[in-house]
Each structure stands twice: as structure tokens, then as C-alpha cells.
Amino acid sequence: MITGDKQKMAPISLPDYKNLLDDLVKQATRNGADAADAILAQGKSVSVAWHNDKIESVEHAEGGDLGLRVLIGKRQVIVSTTDHSPAALQELVSRAISMAKVAPEDPYCGLADPADITTASGADNQMADAYEIDVDACVARAREAEAAALSVEGVTQCESTNAGGSASHVYLAASNGFCGDYARTDYWISAAAVAGSGTAMIQDYEYDIRVLQKDLPDAAAIGRKAGQRAVSGLSPRKMPTGKVPVIFDPREARSLLGTFAGAINGAAIARGTSFLKDFMGKQVFASGLSIIDDPSIPLGLRSKPFDGEGITPHKRAMVEDGILQSWFLDLRSARRLGLKSTGHASRGTSSMPRPSPTNLYLQAGTLSPQDLMQDIASGFYVTELMGDGINDVTGDFSQAARGFWIENGQITFPVSEMTVAGNLKDMFLNAIPASDLTLRFGIDAPTLRIEGLTVAGV
User: Which domain holds residue 288?
Assistant: First the structure.
């Protein structure tokens, strides 16, 4: 057993990071760059895997990656390093300048206008705790989750349980005058349980992730839920082909919302590769339905005070009363479309900014999940979608699925080796949300009912 091993996050002090990044940006502009920005991501994590009543692995990670982007005219490159010594950073600048001079031109690249950059800081959002994580406590959580999963009658093994946490601190500075930072923490517990054996084996999982360690749920509850999910899927049937109402469990409804987010990503819209590229201002969901993106949710997993280009993101309705209101835009995609950034740039230390959502959720409806299915004589309750069966250009949707059959408004028996097919444009228009929305995972949706999908045993 590991004992006494604890991690604390010790972020670089504000003056140190500011001096480091400011000096790097100034070196770049002194040496030929027309503009530059620098990002530093300092992080630390621990993860414990437990299997068969013993530690399977304990993983520690720690680092401070630094990325420098330089722009010369309409050419840009980004280079990164983990070596923060003066000599290494000087070489980084020299390499970036040399690469930028021969990079292909990009007419849409460029930093934010100084009038558009934010003055917000990480203190404005509840995104982190002090981050002190005890490996022994992680071991105890993982062990407890496994014991709880194995205590469920019908569970034959626990594939794995995992507990851990991470902390990160992001610093960004640019030659347009932007300078900011924020910290965030995440803690998690997960369990994967197996019921049955051989060809009749069913595996399912449960997990939770929170910003504050004190908010983590009971590990035993995670393990029990994983075990119960696995056992409930034993002895599945296959159903014949037909068009029926389909109910998507919240974890798969989240997947559909994530697909929608990809379809209104500004980069895809600018390329013309989204099936929703011509739908701005048009009906994409049923009247009364709204989809919100909110970067300021306290303890939100994707909350942040500024985006990857130093612009303040704001709460906005991406869909209001069923009508599409906005794309997710960074500066580059906005310029291509003749629009302004929506503050949705996301980036790493070695990648260019790209658009992505913050805390995205589909607003809840008024009916409970049970009420949502009470008039269904025959239908499919989907708990898991599998494979890659989505055509981003046409919206055609066809994925393997498993879950439960609905008869006379009640969940009856498990089904597997099924496919669910339709077109996402029709699916979104026919989606009816239940009242069980919980904001937990960054992309969240309640239980969803969608009419008239084709289901078939495969």
C-alpha cells in the first residue's frame, strides 16, 4: 500500500509568469515577428487504478508546457517546449521566426483587436480548490467502488475502478496587450462492471467528475450503479426492424448535443462541411426549445474567464425557441464568415486556436422521463451508442445501440445488437426533452424522446 503520498498544486506566481511570457513575446517582436502570443499550461495529476482487490497502477504526471505563436504578415506558426531556461527560450524564438517566414499564408490569422480583449481573471469563476490530493484516499475510493460493484448480485467481475484528480493553471500573454491566467481542478471516480460470462457477458460503467474534491459523490454509489447497469443488461434480445419512438438516456442525449455542437462549429461552417451550414436564423429544434452555452457557471467543468485568444465569452442562447442563433466562433472562423468572434477559441500549447463550446446544455422540458414514455406502445430506450455512423455533411445518422425495449409505457427487457438510424436534421426537430437535466459534465442534456427513428436488430 502506498502511504503518505500527497500532491499540492504550487502555481507559478503572477509576477514570474507575467515576466516570463512578456519577455518571450517581446523577444519575438524584437526579432522580426509582427505579433506574438505565448501560453503556459502548468499541470499536475494523480490517477489510481484498482483491480482484483489490489492496486493495478498509480500514475503521476506533472509538467509545464509552453507554446509560442508568432505572426509575420499573414503567416503564423506555433512552437512549444517544456524547457523554460533562457537559452532554450531564445532558441524557441529563433526557430519560430524562421518557420514563420516560410509558412503558408493564412489571410484570416491574427490576434484580437486590443479593444476586444478581456480584463477578467480566474478569480471571477469558481473553477478550482486548493488541490491537495492524497494517493491513499484515491486508493480507498477505488477499492470502495470495486467492492460495491462486486456486491451487486449478478456481477461477475469489476473490469476496473479509478479515482484521481488534476490541477492546472493556464497563463496567456500577447503583444496586443492581453495578459491573464486562471486555475482549475478536477476530481473523478469511475467504475466498469461485468455481469455474466462468455458470449453472454455485459459490461457497463458509471463515473462522476467534480471541480471541488469535497463534492465528489460516495465511491460506493458509483460502484453500485456500474454493477446495476451491467446486471440490468443481461439476457438481451434483438428486435425486428421498424419505426418507433426512441428515448435517449441522458448520457447518450449528451452525445447527440455534442454532435449538434460540432455541426455549428464555425470552422466546419466556414469550410462548408456541416449539414447545418445554411440554417442560421432557421428552425432547427422544436418551438420552445433552447440550447445555452454559459462559460460562467460556478463549478462548471468548462467555465473560464477568457478564451484562447483573450476574449471574454458570454452566456448566450445558441438556439432560442428552436431557432439557431449563433455559431461557435474563434477569430479565424469569424473572419472567414465576416463575423465577430463569440469568445469560443480553445487551444493548447502546440496547437492553433479553434472554436469549441464552454458549458453547453439543452434546457429541460416539463415532463418527467416516465411521463415522456407513458404513451409509447412499443419503443426503444437507448443507454449506449457505439461506433462512428454520423455523416457530418448530410446529417445521416446510423449507430449501433443497446438499451431496453419499451412496452405500454414501461421499460421491460434489455435489447442489444441494434441499430438506430435517421437524419439529424429531422431528429433535432423532433426532440422532446424531459425535466431531468443535471449540469455535471460540461455538455449536458436531459432524457430525450425522438419520434419515428428506424431501429433494427443486426
Answer: 236-458
